[in-house]
Design goal:
With about 400 residues, this protein is an alpha+beta fold. The chain has a domain of about 160 residues: 2-Layer Sandwich (Dna Ligase, domain 1), CATH 3.30.1490. The protein is built from 17 helices and twelve strands. The termini are far apart. The structure holds a DNA duplex (18 and 18 nucleotides).
Length: about 400
DNA sequence: TCTGGGGTCCTAGGACCC
DNA sequence: TCTGGGGTCCTAGGACCC
């Protein structure tokens, strides 16, 4: 089974404040683009990623709200708990989607599968006042096709013997895991619908496509590749912080300062989860949306920006060129290891690390209490100043900054 | 669509080793 | 050295997802 919240963020906003029901609602004010919208807003022609200022101008009647991620998380957890009344084998796929394995539960529950889906959908509606669409099939890829079949509020079962009848009506680009690039590629090979792919033989598929797509092909043919995985995800493989700024710039100090801010943010999150990065990647994105990146191995895993920043600064010229104009910077911490640091270093950098660790314990507490940015690296200062419209260099003096 | 932010997984090719 | 064959590790980047 795959459950998908209908216009989830907007639905939660309406559940929180029912006077919004029936109105076009858009969430994403704080990001400057529409990240979710109600069906009424969709009917006006609003699409994902549409800039908020344009929505404001073109559709003044639209209610524009900032995202309230704490509420979304609460609703999400409640939704999953309702599903868990029927099976423990539930995989939380994203904030508004989950997979659950109902195999065999029809007998003990003394209900048909369809009845179970209906019950789940009703309980979510009654208790949370939000609508979901549900799909049921032999594999995750097919269950996703099913849940998308009729939105909002749909329930769709795809038994194995009817799979091809659904796939023949499904354009290949609608399949989970097949994006724009692969669709274009497959179209050129004569594959237009999901059915066209499903009926190819394995030799053809392995010759033409790589591993993830071979798995999709199997799942389209009811061969289960990806099991429902109920393990709660409690850690990260990587932590990324990025920021787009306006206007775009070629100024290396400005860019380094943005990277410094990215790094501080990423390290702060890593410390929160007791994770340390063994590698760190930085990237610059140009006006033309071209990425330039590089990756660096650290001598010892760290989550201390003061330790990592000098290393990053040394690598910065690898990605920077003064004749390019950049709009976004980003930092990714990877190869994260969890737990306390223990390893004694040969050259005693860990002593320095430990000192900063003590400082950061205090700084993290201050940030917790007073908000992001109350204490930050001097190297990040330019990036913070950038946020204030019309700021000038003399603002530094007004801010009465303390330097560590 | 002039396009935000946070993730995951996979592959090609180079460096290096025996 | 004008070089065979097999393997691992690392990095950049592609593609996709929500």
């Amino acid at each position: 089974m795959h459950i998908d919240g209908d216009a989830f963020f907007a639905s939660v906003e309406i559940a929180k404040n029912p006077s919004l029901r029936g109105k076009p609602v858009v969430v994403g004010k704080e990001r400057g683009i529409a990240s979710a919208f109600s069906y009424e807003a969709k009917a006006l022609g609003i699409t994902r990623g549409l800039p908020i200022y344009q929505i404001h101008k073109r559709f003044p009647q639209v209610v524009i709200l900032p995202g309230d991620y704490i509420s979304y998380t609460t609703y999400s957890e409640k939704m999953f708990d309702i599903v868990r009344r029927y099976t423990d084998n539930l995989e939380e796929y994203s904030i508004d989607e989950c997979f659950a394995d109902l195999t065999g539960w029809d007998k003990p529950l003394k209900m048909s599968y369809e009845k179970i889906l209906l019950r789940i959908q009703n309980e979510i509606k009654e208790e949370l006042d939000i609508s979901v669409s549900i799909g049921l099939a032999s594999t995750k890829v097919l269950a996703k096709v099913a849940s998308k079949w009729r939105k909002p509020g749909g329930i769709t079962l795809i038994p194995d013997n009817l799979v091809y009848e659904f796939l023949i009506k499904t354009p290949i680009e609608k399949i989970w895991g097949i994006g724009r690039r692969t669709s274009v590629y497959l179209n050129k090979k004569g594959i237009i619908t999901a059915y066209d792919l499903a009926i190819k033989d394995e030799a053809w598929v392995t010759h033409i496509l790589s591993k993830p797509y071979i798995e999709i092909w199997k799942e389209l043919n009811c061969i289960l590749v990806s099991k429902v995985d109920p393990r709660k995800k409690d850690t990260y493989a990587s932590i990324q912080k990025t920021r787009t700024f306006y206007p775009p710039t070629s100024n290396p100090e400005m860019l380094m300062s943005q990277i410094s801010k990215n790094l501080e943010g990423a390290c702060s999150k890593a410390r929160h989860y007791s994770l340390r990065a063994s590698r760190v990647a930085i990237f610059l994105k140009t006006q033309e949306f071209r990425y330039y990146s590089c990756e660096i191995s650290l001598l010892a895993p760290s989550n201390i920006p003061e330790i990592i920043l000098p290393i990053v600064r040394k690598e910065f010229p690898k990605v920077f060129r003064s004749d390019r104009v950049y709009r976004t910077t980003g930092v990714t911490l990877r190869d994260l290891v969890s737990g306390e640091m223990r390893q004694e270093s040969l050259f005693g950098e860990d002593k320095k690390d430990k000192k900063f660790e003590i400082i950061h314990k205090e700084v993290d507490a201050l940030v917790e209490k007073f908000g992001v940015g109350v204490v930050h690296l001097a190297s990040t200062n330019k990036a913070f100043r950038k946020q204030t419209r019309g700021a000038t260099d003399t603002d530094d003096l007004d801010r009465n900054l303390l330097f560590l």
